[in-house]
Every structure is written in C-alpha cells, then in structure tokens.
Amino acid sequence: MRRVCFLLQVRRERLDEYRERHAAVWPEMLDALTAAGWRNYSLFLREDGLLVGYLETDDFGAALRAMAETEVNARWQAEMAPFFEAPGGARPDEAMRPLAEVFHLD
Questions:
Q1: Residue 66, number of CB atoms within 10 A of its CB
Q2: Which residues are catalytic?
Q3: 11-53: pLDDT as tens digits
Q4: What pTM, to 2 d.p., does this model score?
Q5: All domains of the chain in start order, with CATH
C-alpha cells in the first residue's frame, strides 16, 4: 500500500462553490474511485485555495489510469477544471504530482 499526497491550487473566487461540489460528489464518481483502488481519500482546502489531497492505493499509476478510462471521471474533470489554476490548462487529475514522503509515524 502506498500513501500519496499531492497539491493543487483552487481559484480563490471559486472556493465556496468548490466546497459545495465536494459536499455532494456524484455517487457514480465515488464508486469509480473505489473500484479504481483509491482508499482513505481526503481533500483539505486552505483559505488561499491550496488544496492538499491524500489517498492510499496499491499502485498510484494504475489507479490514475483506471479512473482515466471511466466516463464519469471525464465528466467530473471537465466540470472541475475551471476551479483550478493548472499549468498548461491540464485537467486536475493530470496535474497531480505526488509529494515525496520524508517521514511517517505508524
């Protein structure tokens, strides 16, 4: 099992709507994440728009690929893209770059 943490930047003017969207994530999106091997997935949002994501998975690359193959993820990413400041206009799921874990207390 691998722990994955990543950062993204949500546009400040979209913070409230971003929170609202994540208070009601589509059930089919939740099912797709689970089926793709995303476990213990959390998002944390700072007031300046810094978004910290954390998840556990056996293989992060495989989990990303599995989601990329779903229709629901394509719809979700299209709707979420305007919320983010993404380099080169990348979709949020394509802009996630795992941080290096330097310490863990089990």
A1: 18
A2: 22
A3: 999 999 999 999 999 999 999 999 999 999 999 999 999 999 9
A4: 0.91
A5: 2-95 (3.30.70.100)
